Amino acid sequence: MHNEIEQKFITDYIIKEKQERFVFELGSPKKRETAISRFSHNVENILKKGVNKQVVTNFADIHETDQSVYVISAGNKDGTITSLSDAFSCAENAYAPVIIVGKCFSIIKEEVEGGNTRIFYLK
Fold first, then answer.
1. Which of 54, 81, 105, 116 has the greatest number of CB atoms lying within 10 Å of its CB?
2. pLDDT tens, 66-107?
3. How far is CA 41 from CA 36, 96, 119, in A?
4. Separate counts of helices (H) and strands (E) for the chain
5. The dihedral sign for the CA sequence 111, 114, 120, 121
6. Which residues neighbour 69 within 8 Å (Cβ) at sequence distance 6 or greater?
7. Packing angle between helix 16-27 and helix 3-13, nearest 10 degrees?
């Protein structure tokens, strides 16, 4: 795991009241999945109010030059640095939440429910 990347994601995007808990849970092998599942629904309640966010329904709507990203997920890509296209494939095929962290952006894909899922594109 890359704790410094996860810490920056939490500091940049998560409300202050939840930051300490997220750091603890993501750092614990037993609690990590609990932290990730918090992104299943109501992502907007966890995000800082001033975060520049765009809600999209398709990864094709996201255009970034940073092609190396970090993945937080309940799947096999969790804690890895991979290509943006590989991270998109991982997220598209996952039913659970997936967080993709780039240098100047992050993407949160909520849990899939009934076919449509929201993708939060954060800058």
1. 105
2. 889 999 999 889 999 999 999 999 999 998 999 999 999 999
3. 11, 10, 11
4. 4, 6
5. positive
6. 81, 82, 83, 84, 87, 100, 101, 102
7. 160
Give SS3 for 113.
strand
Tell me how far apart the alpha carbons of residues 88 and 25 are, in angstroms, rounded to a whole number: 24
CA-nearest of 54, 101, 100, 96 to 74 is 96
pLDDT tens figures, 46-73: 999 999 999 998 999 999 988 899 999 9
